[in-house]
Amino acid sequence: MAITVRGVTKRFGDFVALDEVSLAIPSGSLTVLLGPSGSGKSTLLRVIAGLELPDSGRVSIFDTDATDLPPQKRGVGFVFQHYASFKRMSVRDNVAFGMKIQKRPKNEIRARVDELLGLVQLQGLAERYPSQLSGGQRQRMALARALAVEPKVLLLDEPFGALDARVRKDLRTWLRRLHEDVQVTTVLVTHDQEEAMEVADRIAVVNHGRIEQYGKPRDLYEHPATEFVMTFVGPVTRFREAYIRPHDLDVGREPRGSYEEATVEKVVHLGFEVRVELTLAEGDRLEAQLTKREVEGLELLEGQRVFVSPRRLTRVDQNGSAPHVTSS
Amino acid sequence: MSEAHAQPLASGGPADRAASRGRGVRALLVGIALLYVLVLIVAPLGGIIFYGLRSGLGAITDTFSQQDVVHAFYLTFVIMLIAVAVTTVLGLAVAFVLARDRFRGKSFLSALVNLPLAVSPVVVGLMAILLFGRGGWFEPFFTAQGIRIVFALPSMVLVTIFISIPFVIREIVPLLEELGTEEEQAAWTLGASRLQTFFRITLPNIRWGLFYGMALSAARSIGEVGAVLVVSGLLQGQTETATLYILRAFDQYQPERGYIVALMLAAFSILVLIGIETFKRRSLKRAGE
Amino acid sequence: MVADARSRIAGRARRDPGASSRWALRSTAFLYLGLFVLLPVAVILQRGYGSGLGNLEDALHSFGAWNAIRLTVVLAVVTAIVNGVFGTLLAYVLVRIPFPGREVVSAIVDLPFAIPTLVAGVMLVALYGPTSVVGGWFEDHGFKIIFAVPGILLALLFVTLPLVVRSVQPVLSELDREEEEAAHTLGAHGWTTFRKIVLPALRPAIVAGSLLVFARSLGEFGAIVFVAGNIPNQTLTAPVFITQLLSPGSYGQSGGPDQAAAVAGLLFGLAFIVVLLTEKLISGRLERTT
Question: Which residues of chain B have pLDDT under 70?
Answer without folding.
Answer: 1-18, 234-238, 280, 282-289
